[in-house]
């Protein structure tokens, strides 16, 4: 039995998918990014709910995640690996028609060799370096790549030309992203001028699709917004300012992660609470303990910073988050009872723990905190 519980809202997911689709021309494919166990939500549940809402394209980082998606799909959906695929997994990927990124010559040679053995074409997306300086073919290496792509056409299907932006969520990176967009355009032309026109072009993640609509192209790879979180506060505010319904968040959190109060205690003024001296009671106070700590995905960086919801009110985490538990200041509601519901992420009453409290308070990204939620917590799909 877990000490916390997750609910996933089908209607919230539908709302978010519709919101994203409304921003895309009809011809654009929406790929739901479900790496990192679907941003902590659970691949199996997210894939099957998304398919029911019409999504037919899923992007993951690794071949292990691709297998999980493969086991969860029931329609003819496309799976694309954007990151790491071990050579031992290539044969399986090619045989299963799973598409994957190629970011350097060595991967390409391995893919060709495996395709020859399996007798099926490898469906590849060429990743080009445009300025993120992470993975991708350098411009200097392209002449060699062009030759291989032409010579080995019988073994390769050149499906996509791709890149990734180095922080499209923040205006601080505006110039760098603009340069990347320009570079990508030039490289695309270069491929075309060598008679190597990819079937599709794709570069946008959530933030790029919102902040730089010209990056939308033929397919978008949307992760965080699918789950109802914004890439950061800046993108949220930018989007709100453009919409008529000022002030209302158009996205809805899909996840509701909750636990319950384990114990309630009184502490005297001046006493330290929990390990060490990071929190000293400023008055006689009532505290409550919850059975979630960093071993269960409630990050240590939420120490003295995080917020949880009890009885629809936002209450602070005090002291250091322990391995298995965290302490909450419940002085405002001293009659709370053991067993009462505590919401760690998501809605309770009119309040919601979302971007502003669960993550940005601790200067971490939603991405990191979400993906830390353990995969073995029971996930229940609700309407
Ligand atoms: C994670 C990832 C995405 C999705 O990013 P979001 O900000 O969650 O939309 C898109 N493309 C690549 C290559 C990624 O790694």
How are the SSEs ordered, and which strands pair?
Blueprint: E1 5-9, H1 10-22, E2 29-33, H2 35-39, H3 43-52, E3 57-62, H4 63-72, E4 78-84, H5 87-95, E5 99-102, H6 105-118, E6 122-127, H7 142-151, E7 156-162, H8 174-193, E8 200-204, H9 206-211, E9 219-222, H10 233-242, E10 255-260, E11 263-267, E12 285-290, E13 307-310, E14 313-318, E15 326-329, E16 341-348, E17 351-353, H11 355-359, H12 366-371, E18 379-382
Parallel strand pairs: 1-18, 2-3, 2-9, 3-4, 4-5, 5-6, 6-7, 7-8, 8-9
Antiparallel strand pairs: 1-10, 10-16, 11-12, 12-15, 13-14, 13-16, 14-15, 16-17
Helix pairs in contact: 3-4, 5-6
The structure holds pyridoxal-5'-phosphate.
Report on the structure:
The model has no long low-confidence stretch (mean pLDDT 93). The protein is an alpha/beta fold and 383 residues long. Strands 1, 10, 11, 12, 13, 14, 15, 16, 17 and 18 form a ten-stranded mixed β-sheet that branches. The protein has an eight-stranded parallel β-barrel with strand order 2-3-4-5-6-7-8-9. It starts with a strand and ends with a strand. The chain contains twelve helices and 18 strands. The chain has helices at 10-22, 35-39, 43-52, 63-72, 87-95, 105-118, 142-151, 174-193, 206-211, 233-242, 355-359, 366-371, and strands spanning 5-9, 29-33, 57-62, 78-84, 99-102, 122-127, 156-162, 200-204, 219-222, 255-260, 263-267, 285-290, 307-310, 313-318, 326-329, 341-348, 351-353, 379-382. Helix 3 packs across helix 4 and helix 5 packs across helix 6 (105-118). Strand 7 (156-162), helix 8 (174-193) and strand 8 form a beta-alpha-beta unit. Bound molecules: pyridoxal-5'-phosphate.
